[in-house]
Specification:
The protein is α/β, with parallel strands linked by helices. The protein is built from 14 helices and 17 strands. The strands form three sheets. Strands 6, 7, 8, 9, 10, 11, 12, 13 and 14 form a nine-stranded parallel β-sheet that branches. Helix 2 (about 95-115) runs parallel beside helix 3 (about 140-150), helix 4 (about 185-195) packs parallel to helix 5 (about 215-225) and helix 12 (about 360-375) packs across helix 13. It is globular and about 65 Å long. The chain starts with a strand and ends with a helix.
Length: about 450
């Protein structure tokens, strides 16, 4: 018999923690009802700890899981984002569809364990390594969708517009041919994914960056986009800002505001180098930002203006990006610690004047809401109509042992727990119980085989 009624001693509902929460799953894998202050009924499954909604990983390049930890040596005088990118391309050119499925499935199991139940895949691997086209243009998209299905994770596929190597370069470099798409290609890829009928697969659109897409193509894509999220890498690197200024006379975010119909569909990934005027304009447009603090630290990108984005009320989400970190508590910790280091202050993201003294709770709640928009969900979290995803927190772990209830999120983020989530549910089905994922061993074996093929002698 399928479980459909659950009771939690404590759960994070819209507005914060509530006690004695009854959760009912409908036949479509959504919450039919979420009711606090209810005595536990005999027929309900008792959850063994506090319950959180799953979080959306709003920015992922799954194939880069095969590169995580393998770019941490410097063999020349200087190493930065651009030299890392050239090394990453060599990996991107070699991965086969079968290897991509194996690598992505391993990543997606790790993301589930790290508290994510949905991932937005910023997908720009489209063709064979030499740039030749697959008979089915969605071949590599299906590799990702199959991997998500293997793991039990929800997937928002974001096919990427990618057509030139830089602002002043009309075409792609030979090591970028695998990424080549037009606006019409991207629209067709999205349509194919949306028509697949897979229950945990959704799709939006993405523009790789202003440097990688001509203005006319961006206009064509966004005018035909209709409903659904639109993501773009923007203002990640200072060189990108300088190049955009030289080519257009405007900074990247400034150009986007002036030349597109920026609205709530848009998600600005990184937005590391922004001005107060740009932040205010993004806020007025209703667009969101996707911050990837572990990757931005790993690549030496710089620090986003987190206080500015928070103060302006811009929707914020987080992403695992290059996969150097695959758990949201660590991303939130990095998000705050970067600010503490540069400002030499503590609890920078807290806002006691607004009744939000907890840094972790403020970042968590903003990321929860912002992630839903980034993935294209109108409803998310523990509320009626949202998909029935949840995380059961393991309070027996050393980092959470004896922590007062009201400071659970504080300790979960800042006390560095290694395995904070005992159980994980997606769409009403358990994908992990007692820290175990049924497919983890088989998926890990395929991942190891793919890694040997990619990196073996």
């Amino acid at each position: 018999m399928t479980e459909s009624l659950f009771w939690a001693p404590r759960a994070w509902l819209p507005g914060g923690w509530r006690d004695n929460v009854l959760l009912e799953v409908d036949r479509n894998g959504h919450w039919a009802a979420v009711t606090p202050d209810v005595a536990a009924p005999a027929q309900a499954t008792m959850l063994t700890g506090p319950v959180l909604p799953g979080l959306v990983d709003a920015h992922s390049h799954a194939f880069q899981r095969a590169f995580a930890g393998l770019a941490e040596r410097r063999e020349s005088e200087h190493d930065d984002f651009w030299s890392w990118r050239d090394r990453m391309y060599r990996v991107a050119l070699r991965i086969t569809p079968e290897q991509l499925r194996a690598i992505a499935a391993q990543l997606y199991v790790e993301l589930l364990r790290g508290g994510y139940t949905q991932v937005c895949e910023f997908h720009y691997l489209q063709h064979a390594g030499d740039g030749s086209r697959y008979a089915d243009p969605l071949t590599l998209s299906w590799s990702l969708a199959d991997a998500a299905q293997d793991a039990g994770l929800g997937l928002t596929l974001l096919p990427v517009l990618y057509e030139r190597a830089g602002f002043m370069q009309p075409s792609l470099r030979s090591d970028q041919w695998r990424f080549a798409t037009s606006a019409d290609d991207v629209l067709a890829l999205r349509a194919g994914a949306r028509s697949s009928g897979r229950p945990l697969l959704g799709a939006g659109l993405a523009v790789h960056s202003l440097r990688a897409a001509a203005p006319a193509s961006i206009t064509r894509l966004t005018e035909a986009a209709g409903e659904g999220p639109i993501h773009i890498h923007i203002a990640e690197q200072t060189q990108e800002v300088d190049d955009c200024l030289a080519a257009t006379g405007q900074r990247p975010i400034e150009w986007l505001i002036a030349n597109t119909s920026l609205d709530a569909r848009w998600q600005l990934v990184h937005a590391t180098h922004s001005t107060p005027a740009e932040i205010d304009a993004v806020a007025r447009a209703g667009a969101g930002v996707v911050l990837c603090p572990a990757t931005e630290a790993n690549l030496g990108d710089g620090l986003a203006d987190l206080p500015g984005w928070l103060a302006a009320g811009v929707p914020i989400s987080i992403g695992s990006d290059s996969q150097v970190t695959r758990a949201w508590p660590e991303e939130l910790r990095w998000l705050e610690y970067g600010q503490r280091l540069v400002k030499r202050a503590r609890n920078v993201a807290a806002s006691p004047q607004d009744g939000e003294p907890s840094t972790a709770a403020r970042l968590w709640s903003r990321s929860l809401d912002g992630g839903a928009a980034a993935a294209g969900f109108a409803r998310w979290g523990l509320q009626a109509g949202a998909r029935a995803d949840l995380l059961v927190v393991d309070q027996e772990g050393a980092a959470l042992l004896g922590i007062p209830d009201e400071q659970l999120l504080d300790a979960l983020v800042f006390s560095s727990p290694s395995r904070p989530f005992r159980d994980v549910m997606v769409a009403g089905h358990w994908v992990a119980r007692e820290h175990r994922h049924d497919e983890a061993a088989r998926i890990a074996a395929r991942f190891e085989a793919a890694m040997r093929e990619l990196w073996g002698d």
